[in-house]
Specification:
Elements (H helix, E strand, L loop, with lengths): L16 E5 L3 H14 L3 E5 L2 H10 L4 E5 L1 E2 L2 E2 L3 H8 L4 E6 L4 H9 L4 E4 L4 H78 L4 H16 L3 E7 L5 E7 L7 H9 L1 H8 L1 E4 L2 H6 L2 H7 L2 E10 L2 E11 L6 H26 L1 H6 L4 E2 L2 E2 L1 H4 L18
Parallel strand pairs: 1-2, 1-3, 3-6, 6-7
Antiparallel strand pairs: 4-5, 8-9, 8-12, 10-11, 11-12, 13-14
Length: 384
């Protein structure tokens, strides 16, 4: 046999452990000499199946090099133990009399290669190199697959995290859009109310327009508008009957109970047991079974009016009704303040286009179209 000239693959990495199983001392000596001189593989030897099985059970093995015919059995029987205990290891079978059936069985059992006797040192190194390279490549592939699975797992975790963040962001955007839409609707509603009140020429028409607007948006209900008087008292400015007439018994009770409560709390929304618990006996006698909304209308910190709305609790006010009355209350207060200022300053009244001037009635203005909101002032039925 010629001496080895090329080192085995094991010389280029951490020393693989090679188990050689053969009962011929000469072959064991050859393998030990060739592989030992050419590389840094750790060589383990066994002369029969029993010794080989002990080594497989106690040592880490990267390559099994075994003869088929051993004194105590067939070397092929070691293949199943090799793959059970060392699934990444390779195997090369040495035989002097190969057969088709034996070859097929060996490959099915996971044999990487065959080495036919007799063989040279170069062929021995070549087969060992090939088997170890195949084993190393398989191990690197498994390591890459393990790293890939780890990366995929991290990507999935990241995807779930990003998905949750995107969902939260979308929810925030939806909520922000909803809030913006509500704010736009509120501004639009306030501007419509402001324009309506801007067309009122006197206090009576102002109250008429305000109550008309409230009824159009909240639906039919009883509405009482209380105006601030001296000594922090309130006087009834207007009352719109829907189901309960504004008799003195009711308005007097409200003046002493509900109106101060609205002025004190800023806004109220009473329904159910709250009506019984928070109204005075005189009020509850007349307002039992009603749902009540009330809002204090302030201007520069001063209370100018209190608006109280109520109707049967079987037709309750909605959240939109509550938001509406709160949104228009400051605008109503500003309109009242402007009306008071105009009534106290005749020059400003003329500048702003009063129906009367020094020369008498403005016939053009008098002959203009009648505002729809003045139906109550004219004693007409509601147009809606």
């Amino acid at each position: 046999m010629s001496p080895a000239t090329n080192p085995p693959a094991c010389a280029t990495r951490a020393a693989p452990r090679v188990l050689v199983v053969d009962d011929e001392p000469g072959l064991l000596e050859l393998v030990t000499d060739v592989v030992g001189r050419a590389g840094n593989c750790q060589l383990l030897t066994a002369g029969d199946l029993r010794q080989a099985e002990k080594i497989l059970a106690s040592e880490e093995i990267d390559l099994l090099l075994t003869d088929v015919y051993l004194p105590d059995g067939n070397g092929m029987s070691l293949l199943s133990q090799l793959h059970d205990r060392h699934p990444r290891a390779s195997a090369v079978v040495i035989t002097g009399s190969p057969s088709v059936t034996g070859t097929i069985s060996a490959f099915r059992a996971g044999v990487a290669d065959f080495l036919l006797k007799p063989f040279s040192a170069d062929l021995l190194l070549e087969r060992i190199n090939t088997a170890l390279d195949r084993q190393a490549n398989a191990q690197r592939g498994e390591m890459r697959m393990a790293r890939l699975r780890g990366v995929v797992k991290k990507l999935n975790l990241s995807r779930h995290t990003i998905s949750k963040k995107v969902d939260l962001l979308c929810n925030d955007l939806v909520a922000a859009y909803g809030e913006l839409s509500r704010q736009v609707d509120t501004v639009r509603m306030q501007e419509g109310f402001r324009r309506l009140l801007g067309g009122a020429s006197d206090l009576e028409q102002l109250l008429c327009h305000a109550m008309d607007w409230i009824l159009r948006h909240a639906g039919y209900c009883n509405v009482a508008v209380w105006l601030a008087a001296e000594d922090q008292q309130f006087e009834l400015g207007a009352y719109m009957k829907y189901t309960i007439p504004g008799e003195p018994e009711l308005t007097s009770a409200m003046r002493l109970g509900l109106v101060p409560m609205v002025n004190r709390e800023g806004s109220i929304h009473l329904f159910g047991s709250e009506v019984r618990d928070q109204l005075t006996p005189a009020e509850y006698k007349l307002l039992a079974g009603q749902e009540i909304l009330g809002i204090n209308c302030t201007y520069l910190g001063e209370s100018l009016a209190a608006v109280v709305m109520f109707r049967d609790e079987k037709a309750p006010f909605t959240d939109e009704d509550v938001a509406m009355i709160r949104a228009i209350s400051p605008i109503f207060a500003v309109a009242l303040a402007n009306m008071v200022r105009r009534s106290q300053d005749p020059d400003e009244q003329r500048d702003e286009g009063s129906l009367l001037d020094d020369d008498g009635p403005d016939e053009k203005k008098k002959s203009g179209p009648k505002p729809d909101a003045d139906w109550w002032k004219r004693g007409e039925p509601p147009p809606f």
